[in-house]
Amino acid sequence: MHSSNENFFSGLKSIVDSAFPKKCTMCGKIYNNEEDFINDTTTINNHNGLKQSYDDDDLPIVELYRNCSCGSTLMNFFGDRRENTSAAEKRRKKFGELLNYLVAQGLEHSVARIELLKAIRGEKSEILKGIKFPNK
After folding, report:
1. Structural domain containing residue 75
2. CA distances from 103 to 18, 107, 126, 134 (A)
């Protein structure tokens, strides 16, 4: 089962596509893509492994530290793929409103966020099936 942190990573986009395949220098295990990297590694000491940093253009990036199955720590860079258009801002506002509504209905914030992201991606959400949304 994936943790909420791992689901969060799916909302991040790799800055450098050439970062994959990524090879562990200790054991030689190869991670072919972002999904393999996130799914086939583990968190570091119960920490999500995220660290904010800045690229050469002073744009925010996220450094993701994960442990290979051999115990070696690996790192990859990710950036926000968020659009900065008025339409995107409206979508984010609506997402926030829906998120707040679900929390008000008794869902934990992290669960509500994951379930909304599932719905956006067209995946089934058993949890959202049982929620009556207001008509707006």
Report:
1. 4-80
2. 39, 5, 16, 14
Q: Is the pLDDT of residue 22 over 50?
A: yes
Length of the chain: 136
Is residue 136 a part of any domain in this protein?
A: no
The answer to whether residues 97 and 46 belong to one domain is no
- Report the distance separating Cα 41 and Cα 20, nearest Å: 14
65-87, pLDDT tens digit by residue?
A: 899 999 999 988 776 555 566 77
CB 43 within 8 A of CB 26: no
Q: How far apart are CA 80 and CA 62, in angstroms?
A: 8
Axis-axis angle for helices 109-120, 86-104 (nearest 10): 130
Does residue 134 fall inside a structural domain?
no
Which structure tokens are listed for 114? Answer: 């994951």
